[in-house]
Automatic annotation (TrEMBL):
PANTHER family (UniProt xref): THYMIDINE PHOSPHORYLASE
EC code(s) of this entry: 2.4.2.4
PROSITE patterns attached to this UniProt entry: THYMID_PHOSPHORYLASE (PS00647)
Domain Pyrimidine nucleoside phosphorylase C-terminal: start-end pairs: 413-487
Pathway note: Pyrimidine metabolism; dTMP biosynthesis via salvage pathway; dTMP from thymine: step 1/2
Complex formation: Homodimer.
NCBIfam families with a match to the protein in the record: PRK05820.1, Y_phosphoryl
Pfam families to which the protein is assigned, alphabetical: Glycos_trans_3N, Glycos_transf_3, PYNP_C
UniProt function note: The enzymes which catalyze the reversible phosphorolysis of pyrimidine nucleosides are involved in the degradation of these compounds and in their utilization as carbon and energy sources, or in the rescue of pyrimidine bases for nucleotide synthesis.
Protein name in UniProt: Thymidine phosphorylase
Length: 504
């Protein structure tokens, strides 16, 4: 059942849709998650029935969640309305109130029906694209199925930058609504902003022109798509409130549902660099995402991928873009990064009906990479969105002034990495944010990262630090040495499982 539209909401194609999440509540209710939130959720559901509906005052809503009670649809809608209401207007929630509810949610969890209600309210906080709308289809040149991929966040996770043009080169239309770095993880928009002039906040006419030109456009949600998530995401980033199954689910799916996708692959990270460090929590998140998406009519499959080491050779914005250019142009490819990108892309081609099966998809993807077609799509997208005119040959990426190797303190085999600590090193170098809205330094980060299981002689580099000054480089070297465990030579290193798929 559709709720009334909030005042001021664009009366566009969104209004014509039946609420896609109505059935998702039923689907999601069937899922019992094995996460740390399960106990709190059960308490919340049980207590909710015993309490009369309270007022919609922010403090009352926060108190309910703090005390482990479930929020009803009206209370969740009041919270989401409060995220988008202008400061000083009725119903606006201040940053402290938003942070408090986010923290209460991290600690108390949400029942499946609350997660669905939150996803629905956040999706409808702005415009919802409808690709059956003739004007929109014409604006992007009547391209193929509307597909996308999203990751729950990691260190060195640059898959989106390769996957979007690759899938576009195979016939997909990829309006990829991406995010900024969150906590210790990097963000696709921050990476793209390392390209001078690239407009991550392009207005609709501009990103639609990029889609027409390139078949893909990686952009921010902008002011009109899921604006509630934009604000909540920024506050969660700096209030230690990222790690929450309902908040992550609503954040991701609100953007994806607002983009009106026809197919989605989710890359749910697990391991010590992920928000869901425990494999069972990551699988629970994957199941919830797939079920809530399916309930909304969005075909989605989720892969649980290992993040117990950085992905690829680099972490840090400009360095990651350079690594992607190497992959797209066939110059060099770190094997795990290439394999994950191809696995996610292949599944997306199958979901979108662009390949008959996995083998067919892999053959198409290999052709698009080897022929340079995917690189050409990336170049067109960057040019259309204001970045360098010839990004493949002259990406104009700024370099950090100080570069230092991180020497292995003794001989050994790289047996464990504190991947979260590695992400925090990139943040400390200036490559991520400690405060909402903080400017970041696109030049800094890490390169030449060695994988788990690598054998190193004393003094051989674990990786290389790129820093703004010598003091920052020195602090990073020490922190990275502390983050890496070198076991005696010959110690077998068992890599965690990587690549389970969860289907609807
Ligand atoms: N990615 C998102 O878009 N939102 C989250 O909450 C986490 C990862």
């Amino acid at each position: 059942m559709d709720d009334d539209l909030p005042a001021g909401r664009p009366a566009d194609t969104a209004t014509a849709r039946t609420d896609p999440l109505t059935t998702a509540a039923a689907a999601a209710t069937a899922t019992t998650t094995a996460t740390a939130t399960a106990t709190a959720t059960a308490t919340a559901t049980a207590t909710a029935t015993a309490t009369a509906a309270p007022a919609l005052l922010p403090a009352e809503i926060i108190r309910r969640k703090r005390d482990g009670q479930a929020l009803d649809d009206g209370q969740i809608q009041a919270f989401v309305d409060g995220l988008v209401a202008a400061p000083g207007t009725a119903g606006h929630w201040g940053d402290a109130q938003v942070g408090a509810l986010a923290m209460a949610t991290v600690l108390r969890g949400m029942a499946p029906a609350e997660t669905v209600a939150l996803t629905r309210a956040m999706t409808r906080s702005g415009r919802v694209l409808d690709w059956s709308d003739a004007a929109l289809a014409r604006a992007v040149g009547d391209r193929g199925p509307v597909l996308d991929k999203h990751s729950t966040g990691g260190i060195g996770d640059k898959v989106s930058l390769v996957l979007a043009p690759l899938v576009a080169a195979c016939g997909g239309c990829v309006p990829m609504i991406s995010g900024r770095g969150l906590g210790h993880t990097g963000g696709t928009l921050d990476k793209l902003e390392a390209l001078p002039g690239y407009a991550v906040d392009a207005a609709p006419a501009r990103w639609q022109a990029a889609l027409r030109e390139a078949g893909c456009a990686i952009i921010g949600a902008g002011a009109d798509l899921a604006p509630a998530d934009r604000r909540l995401y920024a506050i969660r980033d700096v209030t230690a409130t990222v790690e929450s199954l309902p908040l992550i689910t609503a954040s991701i799916l609100s953007k994806k549902l607002a983009a009106g996708l026809q197919g989605l692959v989710m890359d749910v990270k697990t391991g010590n660099g992920a928000f869901m460090a425990r494999a069972e929590d990551a699988r629970a998140l994957a199941r919830t995402l797939v079920q809530v998406a399916a309930g909304a009519g969005l075909r989605c499959e989720a892969r649980v991928s290992d993040m117990s080491q950085p992905l690829g050779w680099t972490a840090g914005n400009a360095l990651e873009v350079a690594e992607c250019l190497d992959l797209l142009c066939g110059r060099a490819a770190e094997p795990r990064l290439r394999a994950l990108t191809l696995a996610l892309s292949a599944r997306l081609l199958c979901i979108g009906g662009l390949a008959a099966d996995e083998a067919d998809a892999q053959a198409r993807l290999a052709r698009a990479l080897d022929s340079g077609a995917a690189a050409e799509r990336f170049a067109r997208m960057v040019r259309s969105l204001g970045g360098p005119a010839d990004v493949l040959r002259d990406p104009q990426l700024a370099a950090a002034p100080v570069v230092r190797d991180v020497p292995a303190p003794h001989d050994g085999v790289l047996a464990a990495i504190d991947t979260r600590a590695v992400g925090l090193v990139v943040v400390a170098l200036g490559g991520g944010r400690a405060r909402a809205g903080q400017a970041i330094d696109g030049r800094v980060g890490l390169s030449a990262w060695r994988p788990l299981g690598a054998g190193l002689a004393r003094g051989e580099p674990l990786c290389r630090v790129h820093a703004a000054d010598a003091a920052a480089a020195q602090a990073a070297v020490a922190a990275l040495q502390a983050a890496c465990t070198l076991a005696p030579v010959g110690t077998p290193v068992v890599l965690p499982p990587d690549g389970d798929w969860v289907n609807a």
